[in-house]
Amino acid sequence: MRNGIVNHGFTLIEILVVLTIIGVLLSLVTPRYFDSIDRSKETVLRHDLQVMRNAIDHYVSDRNAYPDALEDLVEAHYLRAVPVDPITDRKDTWILVAPEDAFYEGNIADVHSGSEQMASDGSLYVEW
């Protein structure tokens, strides 16, 4: 107290200690946050692949032909829309697999993600 004035506030040391604690907490939380985002994208990818594969199967059983494009599944009301690949964040990166047998006409028997990245389980997304 100088001249009857009381100083209220934080010292530089106190502020540095608080900032250090915040920095340590952020360094612990940030990797878990990004891991949870990656896991949620993987979950969405698995779901989208399952939905598209089921739509292809239903299309084939109803029409005795494979679809020529993913948009055919939308036009025939097997899908509401072509989903966005959650890993690449694009609709046009899906890898379309042609049928191995020549029993039915059409071009798409299966679909995979267009991402070459590695998943959390060590496999490649393109192999799912």
Radius of gyration: 26 Å
* Element-level helix/strand string: HHEE
Low-confidence stretches: none
The general outline is rod-shaped
Head-to-tail CA distance between termini: 70 Å
- Look at the structure and give the mean pLDDT: 91
Approximately how much beta-strand content do the residues carry? under 5%
Provide the structure class: mainly alpha
Q: Please state how the strands of the largest beta sheet are arranged side by side.
A: 1-2
Largest sheet: 2 strands, antiparallel
| Percentage of residues in helical conformation | 40-55%
Number of domains: 1
Number of strands: 2
Distinct helical segment count: 2
Transmembrane segments: 12-34
Pfam families: N_methyl
Protein name: Type II secretion system protein GspG C-terminal domain-containing protein
GO biological process, one term: protein secretion by the type II secretion system
Question: Any overview of this molecule?
Answer:
This protein is mainly alpha-helical and 128 residues long. The protein has one domain. Helices cover 45% and strands 5% of the residues. It is built from two helices and two strands. Strands 1-2 form a two-stranded antiparallel ribbon. The longest helix has 52 residues. It starts with 11 loop residues before the first helix and ends in a 16-residue tail after the last strand.
Task: Give a short overview.
The chain is mainly alpha-helical and 128 residues long.
